[in-house]
Batch of 2 targets.
Target 1
Amino acid sequence: MPKDSGIGASSKRREDLRFLTGNGKYTDDVNVAGQSHAVFVRSDLAHGRIESIDVTEAEAAPGVLKVFTAKDFEGVGGVPCGWCVTDKHGEPMQEPKHPVLAEGKVRHVGDPYAVVVAETLDQARNAAELIDADITELPAVVNMKDALKDGATKVHDDLTSNLCYDWGFVEENKGAVDEAIRNAHHVTTLELVNNRLIANPMEPRVAVGEYDPWKDEHTLWTTSQNPHVIRLLMGAFVLGIPEHKLRVIAPDVGGGFGTKIFHYAEEAFCTFAAKALKRPVKWTCTRSEAFMSDAHGRDHVSKIELAMDESGKFLALRTDTYANMGAYLSTFAPSVPTWLHGTLMAGNYITPLIYVNVKAVFTNTVPVDAYRGAGRPEATYQLERVVDKAAREMGIDPVELRRRNFINKDQFPYDTPVAVTYDTGDYHATMDKLLEISDRDGFAARKAESAARGKLRGYGVAHYIEACGIAPSNLVGQLGARAGLYESATVRVNATGSISVMTGSHSHGQGHETSFAQVVADMLGIPEEQIDIIHGDTARTPMGMGTYGSRSIAVGGSAMVRATEKIIAKAKKIASHLMEASESDVEFANGQFTVAGTDKSVAWGDVCLAAYVPHNYPLEDIEPGLEETSFYDPANFTYPSGGYCCEVEVDPDTGKVDVVAFSAADDFGNVINPMIVEGQVHGGVAQGIGQAVLENCVYDENGQLLTGSYMDYAMPRAYDVPMFTVDHSCQTPCTHNPLGVKGCGEAGAIGSPPAIVNAVLDALNDFGIDHIDMPLSPQRVWAAMQDAKSGA
Amino acid sequence: MSDLQAIRLNVNGVTRAVSVEPSASLADVLRQELRLTALHLGCEHGVCGACNVLLNGRAVRACLTLAVQAEEAEVKTLEGLSAEQIAVTLKECFRKFRALQCGFCTPGILVLAVDLIAANPDPSEEEVRDWLSGNLCRCTGYQPIVGAIIEAAKRLRGAV
């Protein structure tokens, strides 16, 4: 029977009360007395040399306080990169400076070279028009392979080339992989593009900087998934402000999907300018600015080769990927195509030999970084596409080929050849569940019904694995991370028994205020309403690393469990004193402390009160108060997995793809709030449908962003997505965190694109089309059908 | 450039005198002058619907409406709908169906749904999706929103 509270209950979200009444407090709702307004002046060229910037007229315009350019930032650090990848020769990646405002050159459309700060937004906008910038256009590099050619224009003149790094993984295996591929019975090869995307959370980025000269204190309100990370990066590397003088607040945040992880120049600017001008400074991003300044996602071009024996057993896998970094290195950009991608190339399969090569390339485009899934969708897409193609070439059913190569449930923990150890999983079970909920047996009848209406129906599956719960700090440190990746929680029990939990995780739609409260309530046996979750403010929460990589419940939730365990241990000591019993005899359940074998008991509230009014209290043994903090550093990643199935109808006359059914059978381990988990899967799948069918960020050959608004960048709408069938009843709990949870935030976006493309190619089976690159727009599908018909 | 115009806006049943730039959008005036911040600006080019308000009972984009154009009209924002039965029922159903995550697009969708149900008290799933396709939500995948609107319509018809 479903529970009505605590772990496993679909508790209604408490956040909704404020969001449904319009009382959410987002960063643009923050208005500080005396605030001024910043407008960034951005390059409309992809690449240019700044000859001069004349701000005289703009500074004289009504209401203008100051116009800032790079010269105001001499002595200020660049926006740092948080991850250094070592190339296949053991050399560190090439790492260019990313100035707050462009120095000497502009390197992508949207690269800011000046900022106007004025009394009002209109005044700042009007004055921005008066800036006279003399910028000489330079040739732009847009295509990654062109960027690596000898003599190509360099994005950064001080680097040796546009190659950020050439990474081989695992380099020692390369010879054996090459040989296995050379000698294999069959090798399936596929070249594909993982299309460039723009995350597009509905709330654009905003930053408000304030400075108190009398306390020498800075406050930054920002749309961030991780305020402590922003404080650390901006304080230590850009502006030189010590942490105790810098408070970063990320209030309600309207979606992130990765793009609000990163530290952006606009945050540093508003913090810096507030001190320089002795006025609060607010910047609100317009949507058109967001398209050219939010970090983009994906943008990989890959070749993948899968070697098999006669029975379809996988022998070796080799991939060769070009990954676009854009013009500068965004905060975690170098890690995405490497450690978040190469390590997942084993998928759910036993493939003894794997080699992954990744060339990361600078181009005159917006920086590219993590977007929902980050590296894992790129890995899954390659693998699940090549497996489907292999099945077709080998004449084996695609589900059967997957099953022949699955890691079996009795083989866990399983060491992959790409350096990670999966703790648990049961891939046959999720595949079984998928076939059941997607009604594979009924597909033939549905296909016939579609055909009667003149539509081509296809059924496609994909099975994914991801590594979440990032991450063991010592491991990621060895891999180049310049941060630890633990999470923190402080559980503050108040004198009357209510509880404030301060977490380093951040909620920007995930519902942590509800699900985290469920965890603590469950452990203490008290009502969820008695617990408040506080997040998003460096002054109120312990140092934590924030929310991304589906880590919040696995790492943040585990920190909360550890802190609550400490609370229980101390409360038991207090209770044993109150009951005059031995501590080892005290039991705690349902909010009551009892002594085994007696009728002695004290209630939770009595213990809390005693802790703060310690009249009758063992002061010689323990301190008053009841507040504990825990920093949890995970022992391993978590490995959610699952099977996804898509059914499409393709219109043979127009090439239009309709996603008519979508099923997901996920293994997230234990589930805290099923309703929230389902919502995460729905949202992820919708973004996957967006990637597979609709969304594409396009630059022309001169580096002009052609998809700079919602008129050109096709976001999924209500009529683009079907009703989803989701199931998470297959549960193999994580073995190394106290909740047995794996994380669910990214799965939908990881598993869905290959399922959709596989379904479309199944629908087009009679045409013999091997592959169509995403997005599967009507034009692309129609062209592929025409080419196939004409034998091209 | 600055040529402020004094207008009277009837917002949520109260007439307010404001001085606005002729080019000022209704969205900016509501958010910044009147501090009605339920509506949000998601795109400023009329595509996402996060800024929807009711203008004489119909959902419109406040980002594409000039404040001066709204002078003769009755403007309702989500704040002003708090006591109205359609909105109350919609909010209950949105919560039950977990039809929101980050909440940023939600006020605009609720305003749209009020208009939808007033115009069509018994909408089909297809009709709801068709209406809803004027709004962008990046979090939910739309399914629970569709379900919540259909359920609210049912309740309001007394069919539940």
Target 2
Amino acid sequence: MFLKTNQRGLQLAVFLFFGFFFLMPRISSAQITISGKISDQENGEDLFMANVYLQDYYTSATTNEYGFFSLTVPSKIKSPTVNIIFSYIGFKSDTITVSTDKSQRIDILLAPASVEIKEVQISAEATRNQEMVRSTQVGAIHMRVSELKDLPTIAGEKDVIKSMQLLPGIAGGTEGTSDFFVRGGDGDQNLVLLDEATVYNVGHLFGFFSVFNSDALKDVTVYKGGFPSYYGGRLSSIMDIKQKEGNQKGWEATGGIGLISSRLTVEGPLIKDKASVLLAGRRTYIDKVFSAVGSTLPYYFYDFNWKLNYKLNENNRIFYSGYLGDDVLDFSESSSGNEDEEENFDFNFGFNLGNITHTIRWNHIYNEKLFSNISFVTTSFNYDISGKIDSNNLLVRSKIRDYAVKAKYNYYRNERSTINFGGEIIQHAFRPNIISTSGEISEFLESKKGQVIDFQEVALFANDDYDVIEHILKVNYGLRFSSAITGDEFYTGLEPRISARYTLNEVSSIKASYSRMKQYMHRVSSSTVSLPTDLWYPVTGNIKPQTSNQVSTGYFLNLPKWKSLFSAEVFYKNMSNLIEYREGSNLLLNDEFEKDLVQGEGRAYGLELLLKKDQGKLRGWIGYTLSKSEREFDQLNGGKTFPAKYDRRHDFSIVASYDLSKRITVGSVWVYSSGAKFTAQVGQYFVPNLSLTGVERIPLYSDRNAVSMSPSHRLDLNFTIRPKRERERWHGEWQIGCYNLYNRATPFRIEIQTESKQTATGEEISQVYKQPGLFGFIPYFTYNFKFK
Amino acid sequence: MKQLINVKNILLYSLALVLLVACEPEPLDIDVPQTTPKLVVYSQALPDQALIVTLSKSFSALSAPNEPEDTTQQDSINNVFLNQFLVDSAIVTINGADYNDTLIRLAKGVYAAPFFPYTPGNSYQLSAYDPATNFFVTSVTTTLPIVGFDSISANRQTGRDSMYLTLDYKIDDPIDAENYYLINVYGDSIPESNFFSFTDDANANSVAFSDREYPKGKLQREDEFELFSGDSIVVTVTNISKAYFEYIEARDRSGNSFLSEPISFPTNVNNGFGYFNIHFPSTQIVRVR
């Protein structure tokens, strides 16, 4: 009764909230406001975090994710006109003189800067760095995907997620996995959004490749701390990835032919300046390569991104975007017609893992001060594992379906205050471990439909970005109310968010933030390895929501002379109701997982240093993280505190691109990381079995995660070679490079291997500990092209 | 078209070449400190009120028996390997209110108290000292009341499943606290063995469970065992402590499977491993239908 009453009350509150703001009357004030959109002149793409500032006055604004800005002219300005400068990294700035007698709507098109116009780029970069110093945002990184183009990656495939892992505070998992770990958190504590749709599996081929085709992407923003109240649902990070909208000015095709896969993106106007489309596809052909050399690798992946964008009028725009991707493994072998019938067999093993997302979005500009984005989103994630031996068949299937409505409003109240508010409702449906068997195997493993788990998340949020002391102290304070309804359980949480910036001088500031986060769903993974087939589950009556509290503070320094930005941040995060498997749990097809889950506490703290330079011949960054992350569970490790698996004390990366000439750019990445932690077998003993009829060998393990694997370090190189003369419509370039130049193993586990050595007395066989790595030296070349 | 095919072939062979050139990195060595060797204690009370205590030593995770070319020799090689870790000359004593004595060496690593009193509720302390290694361990356990079968029947499945036997039984489950039980089933008689060797003809099964999911006082179960037998089987039921049950559960869960969680085993042996218990079984011979 209590639950039902609360549910009804919650639903009514949500309805009123949305209804009120949907029907909100026109808001205006006496102050003059200049508002509008900033877009790319060449293709019409909205520019996020473009800068808008009043020349000679210390007043500025930035565009939101949809290119919209609103700049209120301070009432103290008496001049009849003001100059407004619009700038964005990599684009020529634009200055417009506007009168201050009335509010105006100005839509700006910025032209990309050519390589020669360095002063413009430097000016834009200085402004972006300045904005980083001035904003209240701490623990956030924003990058345009195009900035990553010269960086080397595995097999030449640009990978947004792997590139983000080169920044301080974001650590990768083992090689070949798509998991990442932010500020000591776990792998399932990161929310990855593609055009606001949750992506549950972010790697093809178990993480070797990203699911994100970089040709279809525009920018990525990662929040490690100081989370805006708009975001929630995960403890450790939000990675918000936006697709391009599609060129509204002219048709173009972009693509690449690589050794592992090829890709093609076509985008263009359906109606010039009004409607555009983007279609991007990619497929690997490694299966064909193996066939060509007479072998078999029945695996491939493909993905497809699309976006339709329609401008109804100056104030309304509709977008429809989506993603479809699959990993397919299909291995068959059979033999028939043998004299000895026992030699006949029919074997098949298959695996299919995929995501599908759809996002319908509506941007609406109510007036010069109020902007909204309302989205309808679905996500579908499923995997099938199938096996067949003669007449025995096994199929294991798991599915997740999400349906969500999200609304976000930006209200630019005045020159000192911007209010964001909104809410979201997400309906999750889980169907884990649906098993279907036939043949003799069905006597050991019965078919089952699996549980149907429905749960809803509802959240409301609001925050104000407020200039407390003009130009000196700015505070962003907000609150998120979150809730989850599952079965008979109703969980709620208040998540205060606050961050502040104190300006020290023109070029530096200190910032601080506090965020409380709640997480109502979790992924159950082994402590030794995570797999894409790991299952997501919601909270239940027994499994409580995870919670984190994080404080961070940082020093930000703009170095205009060196066109660089330096930041130093320290953070402390505590986490409660973290989830692990009970010791000795068997994870395979374990449908009764809940009894095997235990909950405990965690904490992490550290220092992050970043020196970043985005312009000039030499570009890149140096990042360093010193951190510690530990856990405490009553039922694990005898209740003693133990290190988190990815408690890597030191993490260091040097990322650099250098223009050797107009034609050749060299990119390099060197990373060093302390070893991850591992629970190793460190002894064994024999003991009679329970019936005293035999012997069992019992392994003895170290304390949980007590053994540090060897540090890993790796150098990757990439050369981008452009033609001597650029053609007017066809642009091509070669990318030649290698991953792991000196072929050093990056350990992912510790195992006992048998080693044989020749000695004076003969062959000596011994058992030794070894740390295998997955990927050694891998050369690659790719031809990228763009056709207009 | 021909050009396209040529480009395709070039790409495919280039990738093949790259795959050949690409290197698998050499695994890195690492030195993992091994746990200090300790004495391992295990014990089992037998139906005729004898008590068996086995003693062995823990050893490095890097020790392993050789793999013979002839796999039928594996058991004997394993026994040779096992033998080096059995503790042969230890002094094992048990002290309690109604028993104070040194156990007799029965076989290598096996010590026995031929006549051990059954006194439920009594506590006993084990002390074991190995002069060869200077290892010394102690442990304390309490004897629980013997629990018997209220009823029991065994049915062999027919046809292709004839190796499977269904045991249907009811235990006199005391109504007070939560209780834990160990069932042992033997296809023939309880084998005479030295209790501590690799054998390839073991025909026995075990299952341990608690009464928490059953109505109090009425513990009725049906278990299926893979068991070869003649006309009859021998079944024992032992009332065990919760701590010993958790040790058995941990042993059941343990393994080197890639997908199993590492486990730290409970022990009641001070300065050692394993588990010391004196839980007397009740025995029943059951005809197989």
